[in-house]
Amino acid sequence: MPPPPSVLTIGNFDGVHIGHLYLMGRVVELAHREGLSPAAMTFDPHPTRVVAPERAPKLLTTAQERAALMRDAGIEHVYVVPFTTEIARMTPEEFVAKFVHEECAARVVVVGENFRFGCKQAGNTETLAALGEKYGYRIEIAPSVHYRGRPASSSEIRRLIAEGNVSMAGRLLDRPYSLEGDVVKGHGIGSKQTVPTLNLSTQAELLPATGVYVTRTYELKPGAKRTREWESISNIGTRPTFDGGALSIETFLLEELRGETPSRIRVEFLRRVREERKFDSPEALKAQILRDVGRAKTYFRRTGSLQSS
Asked: In the prediction, which pLDDT does 194 show?
C-alpha cells in the first residue's frame, strides 16, 4: 500500500524537546489544514554513530521513546529509518527521491533553519527547496526555539543534564528528564544503617551528574491501567561514606512503601539538592539524608504534590 500524502519533518529528534515540538506542531497544523497526514522521519542508530562513532553523543531517548513522544505530539506516521553506510553515501537528491518522495509521499516538508542532509551534509534548506520543484513538495523553514536565552537543542540539554542542572533541562524538554529500569538488590547498607532505598538499574546512556536530587518515582507495570507513584529523593553516586564502589542510583520514597516492592520504575529528576560527599559516619549520612528529605518535601509543597509528568 502506498504511503498517504504527508506533511513531513525530518531529523534525529533526540529528546523530542520544545524545538522539536514546535516543528511537529506546525506539521500537524498544516496537515489538518490541507488534508494530509502528519509525519516525521528519524534515524536509528544516530547517524554520527555510523559516520563518526568517536563523536557520537550519549542519547537522551531511544528510537522507541522518540516515536512514542512524536505520536503524543500528534504525528500519525513515524518513519524510523535504519541508518547505514549506504544511506550515509547518498547524495541529497538520492535521499529525497528514496525517502522524502517514495517512502513518505511528502507534499510539504517542515525543517529547521540549520537542516543538513545527504553525503557529508552536502544538502541544506536551499537544496531541499530546489529538489521540491522536481519531486512535488514545498518546504517551510521553522525558526530556532529558545527558552530564557538558551537554545532548545539536544546538545544543550545533554550538557545541562551532565552538569546536574535537571531543572533547566526539564524546561527545554517540556517534561522532567527521567531514567527507567529494573529495581535491583543493593548492598543492604541503606536498610540497616541509613534509610531503605530502591536501587535502579538502567540502560540509559546519559546520567545526571553525581549528587542528590528531588525526584518523582513511578511504578512501571505492563498492562496496568493505574500504577503507583511517589514523591522521592534520589542519589546518583559511588557511596563514598562506605568506601565507594560502582556507580549506583538509589531512590528513597517520601512515604511508606505499601504492598510489594516494584520490579520496574521510572525516576523523574526535578531539581538538584547537593553534590555527593563523604560523611564521617553512617549516622551523619543518615542525618543529612533526613535534611535532604525535608528539602524535597518543601519542594513538593511549593510545586504541588504528584503532578502528572
From this structure: 41
Q: How many Cα atoms sit within 13 Å of 11 on the Cβ side?
A: 25
- CB-CB neighbours of 81 under 10 Å: 17
Q: How many helices (H) and strands (E) does the chain have?
A: 10, 13
C-alpha cell, 259: 504492598
Strands 211-219 and 106-112 come out as unpaired
Q: What does the alpha-carbon distance between residue 77 and residue 102 come to, in Å, rounded to a whole number?
A: 15
Residue 73: which H helix or E strand, with range? none
Same domain, 52 and 139: yes
CA angle 233, 236, 239 (to 5 degrees): 105
CA distance 133 to 56: 34
Give the 3-state DSSP-derived string for 47-65, with helices as H, strands as E and coil as C: HHHHHCHHHCCCCCCCHHH
Examine residue 162 and state whether it is found in any structural domain, yes or no: no
Residue that wins the pLDDT comparison between 50 and 246 = 50
pLDDT tens, position by position, 112-147: 999 999 999 999 999 999 999 999 999 999 999 999
Percentage helix, strand, coil for the chain under 3-state DSSP, each rounded to 5: 35, 30, 35
For residues 252 and 286, what is the distance between their CA atoms, to the nearest angstrom? 12
Given a contact cutoff of 8 angstroms between Cβ atoms, the answer to whether 246 and 207 are in contact is no
Q: Before 38, cis peptide (omega within 30)?
A: no
Q: Are residues 250 and 138 in the same domain?
A: no
Task: Tell whether 170 is covered by a domain.
Answer: no
224 Cα distance to chain centroid: 23
Measured from the Cβ of residue 78, the count of other Cβ atoms closer than 10 Å reads 18
Residue 223 has pLDDT above 90, yes or no: no
Question: Cell match 513511578: residue?
Answer: 218
